[in-house]
Amino acid sequence: KQLLLSGKKSHLALMNQYAHFKKMEHLVIITATYGQGEAPASAEKFIQLVKKNPQKQAFDFSVVGFGSTAYPNFCQFAYETHEALKEVNNSTALQEVFTVNDQSFESFNNWCSVWSEKMGLPIHLEKPKLVTTSKPASTFKVIHKAELPEDDTFLLSLKNLNGSKPVSGDLLSVVPAKGERERLYSIGKVNTDTLLISIRRHEKGLCSNYLHQLEHNEKLTATVVNNRNFHFPKYSKKTVFIATGTGIGPFLGMIQENIKRKEIHLYWGARTKDAFNLYKDYIETALQEGKLTDFKTAYSRQQSEKIYVQHLIQRDKELFLEVLKKKGCIMICGSIAMQKEVLQELQQLSSKYLGKDLSYYQNRRQIKMDCY
Ligand SMILES: Cc1cc2nc3c(=O)[nH]c(=O)nc-3n(C[C@H](O)[C@H](O)[C@H](O)COP(=O)(O)OP(=O)(O)OC[C@H]3O[C@@H](n4cnc5c(N)ncnc54)[C@H](O)[C@@H]3O)c2cc1C
User: Fold this and answer.
1) Ligand 1 centroid vs 306 CA: distance in angstroms?
2) Domain holding 223: CATH number?
3) Are 292 and 266 in contact (CB under 8 A)?
4) 198 CB under 6 A from ligand 1?
5) Interval 211-220 mean pLDDT
6) How far apart are the CA of 202 and the centre of ligand 1, in A?
């Protein structure tokens, strides 16, 4: 908007759409970083595309990275993008990579001032009004804690004593100690006022251990964060859930909410069969009640050869292809490493059998992810 107001033309595209831009003089990249320093899905092909599409004319570029310093690989993909662009002929880095921590408007504005000064353009950004998607803090009471002696995961059932009305797939933000940053946990809503969170206990983790030591009837103050891109899709007739470990948490709630008994297939990966005991009752009841169509597991350490959820996608490809073709939805929750493998499998199916890039379905919100 600001460029248009200054009488300049601009073209806005996803990083995966990088091509020969005949008239490009200035390139601005704004990118997040995903997982352990990887590209976001919409930028996965960018580095390759930069190499494949040299520009005939000279251009300058500037890279802005969005991220959070709470992660060790803060803005790593922004730095990789900068390096890749520096390597190509005709390009000039206008400035070093600029980083923006935790959506800081001030940092972004600083970048904008420096950039616009170099461009000789008067650009003034207006501070956006704060839109909070979080509801006010609520009080929860621990009504049940289930854990397995041989496993490091546990399930907390929380009764919502006041306030917010979460939906399965929303996140619970917990601040484990004063001055600490928040930690997020995926919510499964199992009935009107009971939430379920599945937590993996980290050996020296502050919040996971804080939650673990909570006793029956003890209270917890936490904030529900709206995560609307990960709610159960009402329109989808056929849905596949894919999870590893604690990633099953939000799905336990979504299955409960399936009163229309739509087709839902759940794929779950864990190291051993024993891990399933934590969720057994929920899954078996849902199967009996017809709220869950089937439940397929991949236990990586149960047999001599390693089986992971992504292997099941290959095996059951007919189902996955049908879900994609018929506007169904695939939801993925759990580890980032699993997400990467699953997306790769889906990408292969999609291009081989449907002649489409997976981004086609992602753009239609048929693939939803919440991985950590
Ligand atoms: C969108 C989202 C959804 C999530 N959903 C879930 C969920 O449903 N379930 C779930 O279990 N988690 C979930 N997480 C992860 C969760 O938010 C926390 O990151 C996780 O519980 C670890 O927090 P912590 O405070 O226990 O560990 P932290 O204190 O933050 O420590 C992080 C890591 O560092 C290690 N560490 C800490 N101190 C030391 C030390 N002194 N020496 C060596 N190592 C150390 C810990 O062992 C741990 O592995 C989610 C995250 C996101 C972003």
Assistant:
1) 26
2) 2.40.30.10
3) yes
4) yes
5) 97
6) 6
